[in-house]
Design brief:
Length: 291
């Protein structure tokens, strides 16, 4: 872990990465890709130590309130967050200035900040986005080895539901020949339906691989699933997008089950919800009517 003073924090879409790199060890992580031009080891977390100051300055200058998001490129609730508390400090600032917040994570550490998320949600909107990929717990421990398993993430979603906080699930990636099965999909969907998630983001049943992330993924396949790397090479070559041969069948099941349970499954609709700041009570009612 190393510390830097960043020149800026918020993106044009009001997203922020408080850290760079990750210690979860997920074998498929796209953030390892060389296109992101990370100049340090991925597990050597870069900490933007002046992030709270930058965020406060940015929010103070904004003429219109908005949703502020974190977690797109690195999990804001890695183990280092327990001591550093950058995510918590930034949520405190968001709460104090009356903005909205969305956090994307795989970690149950998000529950530490339940009080702040609740406070933000009461005055504007706070959405927790949770990634679920693998229903089988043993397989999950191989694919996502240094973060809580899918079962625990489901329990977190239930706690958030109990506390009235809206949630969205990222069902991505689904790895060909490993978890691209109807059993896996139904298991994750059952968790989502029971936890009352607002929407499920799914871009297809597959995984993306490119320079930087591909070698790490293949090394993990060699370690845990001997022979599977050769199968990937035979079927997909060097393709960026590796779609499951079961994609069409599984996507039909995904959309039909979401429709049946009244869960958003349109990507544009969900992203619109995540980015829309509720200007008034009428707008919040509109979201409920759409659902």
């Amino acid at each position: 872990m190393h510390f830097v003073n960043s020149k800026g924090l918020l993106s044009a879409g009001n997203g922020m990465n408080l850290y760079r790199g990750c210690t979860h060890g997920c074998i498929y992580c796209d953030s390892r890709s060389t296109c992101y031009q990370m100049d340090h080891d991925f597990e050597d977390i870069e900490v933007k130590q002046n992030a709270p100051e930058l965020l406060e300055n940015a929010l103070r200058r904004k003429r219109k309130k908005c949703m502020v998001g974190t977690g797109a490129m690195c999990d804001p609730y890695m183990p280092c967050e327990e001591q550093l508390k950058l995510t918590r400090q930034c949520l405190e600032i968001i709460d104090r200035y009356g903005f909205g917040a969305t956090v994307q994570t795989k970690s149950d550490r998000v529950l530490r900040d339940l009080d702040l998320l609740d406070s933000i949600n009461r005055q504007s909107k706070a959405v927790v986005q949770m990634t679920l990929t693998t229903y089988d717990e043993a397989l999950c421990r191989l694919l996502e080895p240094k973060v809580c398993t899918t079962r625990r993430r489901y329990e977190v979603l239930k706690i958030l539901q109990k506390n009235g906080l809206p949630t969205v699930v990222w069902l991505s990636p689904v790895l060909p020949f490993l978890n691209d099965t109807e059993e896996n999909l139904r298991g994750i969907l059952d968790y989502c339906f029971d936890a009352g998630v607002k929407g499920i983001l799914c871009f297809g049943m597959g995984v993306t691989l490119r320079d930087g992330s591909r070698p790490y993924f293949y090394a993990a396949l060699d370690r845990y699933f001997p022979g599977l790397k050769q199968r990937y090479k035979q079927v997909y070559g060097n393709s960026y997008e590796c779609m499951s041969r079961n994609n069409d069948t599984l996507m039909r099941l995904f959309h039909s089950q979401c429709e049946r349970h009244g869960i958003w499954h349109n990507v544009e609709q969900i992203f619109s919800y995540l980015h829309e700041f509720p200007e008034d009570e009428n707008q919040m009612c509109l979201f409920d009517l759409i659902r």
